[in-house]
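so i finally got all the pieces together for this one. its two components total, 698 residues if u count the protein bits. some of the lines might not be protein, just check the labels. i wanna see the whole assembly predicted at once instead of chain by chain like last time, that was a mess tbh
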Amino acid sequence: MSLPQTHQVWLLKTRPSDKSIPNEFDLTTRRTPIVEDLKDGQVLIKNTSFGNDPAQRLWMDGSIDPKRLYIEPILVGDPIRVSAMGTVVLSKSENWKEGDNVYGDGDWAEYSVLNDSGPLTGKEILIDGQSPYITNSILGLTGQTAWVGAYKEMDLRPEHTLVVSGAAGAVGSTLVQIAKKIIGVKKVIGIAGGKDKCDWVNSIGADACVDYKDPDYPKHLAELLPEYADRFFDNVGGEILDTMLPLIKRHGFVSVCGAIAGYNDDGFKLKHWGELIYNRFTIKGMLIFDHADSLDEAVRDLTKWVKDGTISNTESETVVEGKLEQVPEIYNKLFSGGNKGKLITKLIV
Amino acid sequence: MSLPQTHQVWLLKTRPSDKSIPNEFDLTTRRTPIVEDLKDGQVLIKNTSFGNDPAQRLWMDGSIDPKRLYIEPILVGDPIRVSAMGTVVLSKSENWKEGDNVYGDGDWAEYSVLNDSGPLTGKEILIDGQSPYITNSILGLTGQTAWVGAYKEMDLRPEHTLVVSGAAGAVGSTLVQIAKKIIGVKKVIGIAGGKDKCDWVNSIGADACVDYKDPDYPKHLAELLPEYADRFFDNVGGEILDTMLPLIKRHGFVSVCGAIAGYNDDGFKLKHWGELIYNRFTIKGMLIFDHADSLDEAVRDLTKWVKDGTISNTESETVVEGKLEQVPEIYNKLFSGGNKGKLITKLIV
């Protein structure tokens, strides 16, 4: 296969400090790797799509001590790491050959070098009637996070009342479905931004959805939780977290998966921290890397549920087509609330 | 015994909303109960001393839904509940007789009605060479909270590095001693306000103490924690909590016992909430009421340690003498940093 000698790669220009993410990158030209550049187990792929994850914002945030991060940070001048899908064009892997469609840790670039092993690496999974991006959404980091949250972190049970913030997001919308359709949780309440998103969260199984853009949303939440929430899965932090603190049941559990509010601002204010004390609940941060031994089981379960139609993936992606030049702009929709379910960038030439 | 027909009682005038606590009470005259007013198991005591606890501030805070509190709130017009010690002057109890020195839930008043049963109720314990207020400090709510924190909440072990905020306070100073002198925790670091308090915290066993009034204290803390803290026992919340979040070890544990910062202000700001996620630690609120079955063991242990001299109580109280009129003013020293160890009000006529 004949490859271009050079290709385009996005590099981090300045570390993000506010919401103006699309201005903080440089699109540069780099030599395209040749087969001699690859190590054993590596392949070069031509990227076809990218998953967009709030965590990428965190990796670029140079204010965090690298020792405190769970992966290598993205430093100024580095390519932007991303969950990439693409077609193998050069291979030094025994597992993957040219033409295979695979996914793994790539970069915002036309071509990426991938390793053929790792917890979030593999061949593309295609299921009839489902989106081709399913490997990067329900079956990928996103769905695995929701599965781990439900079974390993929150120990969700049918008698629970569950609240999910960011319920229209990638992880949140999958969790709403697992909780309601698989575990049969008594009451599942989503929190999302806008009537459109809330209608969608209700349509995928939530018993109710509260629109945080309505100034009265704390009152609506309280009315929906006369017996409080046994479990709260928080994808956003900030004011929504603070609003939920007085609504967590005594000895309840808060699973903290994300803090978009915290990533893009200089922190946030908590007025109800005392609730943690006098109602003795637990708040715990989560990442799927702590559950590497369970991820095969997660993917098996999720694949089964998608195949038998229990969980719907067809609607739960927002796919945006764009050229490589538009990748940062599309990424930024995560922070402006521009997606339902997983935000996928489909690369076009 | 001849009792006065009336006596003085402090009532809540307005719910506290800022630090001006001493202005928010009314000293009023009430009829002194007679024996016919007492129920079975109740006694009337003449109060001799009061424990001062930050939690009392919480009980008066009418902004909290009573269903969310662990005890009845103190409403406007109510007497101020307090951990009281005194001498029985009327008894309808089979356990306590006139002249007994006892402690339990009383009021800011000359006389209080006490029940002779309950987890924090009993006869005064006197130990040679120890303060007469020991029942209300190391052997009372205070010491029991430290014991529960060490053994039941944090599962402290010798290999741990422990940080204690409010380390010069009643609970904090007892915990420092239990951790270092009993459990033999590898490194115990206190956080306290001012050199004088820090010197004292060091003298009771801490390996180091950081003065939060020094603007460079976050740097000092970080230097003392190159391997981070396995356990953080937080008595204060606010900026100190935020400063500690990047210093909690991956998969570590934060036991939240108090939030003085949160009680007296309109919340506080957190800039490092994301640390909870990418280092997956746990934050849990605690109250000893969840460990009622263990409190007898706690008191046995604490009594033994005080008797054999392992834990020092002689220095770990700040006893302020005052008339009933001065009780709110003395209480307020809790929030202006005016005490080392337990703040005790000794009533004088």
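Chain B has two domains: 6-137+315-347, 141-289.
Residues 250 and 279 of chain B are 4 Å apart (CA to CA).
anyway lmk what u think
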